[in-house]
Amino acid sequence: MNDLKIPNSIAVIGMGLIGGSIAMELHAYKPSIEIIGVESNEIHIDKAQALGLVSRIEKLEEAINQSDLIIVCTPPDVTLELLPKVLDNASHQAVMDVCSVKKPLVQAVSGHPRRGRYLAAHPMAGTEYSGPGAAKIGLFNDKACIFCDTENTDEKVVALGKWFFRYLGMHLTEMEAADHDRHAAYVSHISHITSFTLANTVLEKEKSDQHIFTLASGGFDSTVRLAKSAASMWSPVFQLNKDNILDVLDNYAMHLKQFRDAIAGNNYEALAALIHKSNKINKVIK
Question: Which domains does the chain have, with CATH numbers?
Answer without folding.
Answer: 9-176 (3.40.50.720), 180-283 (1.10.3660.10)
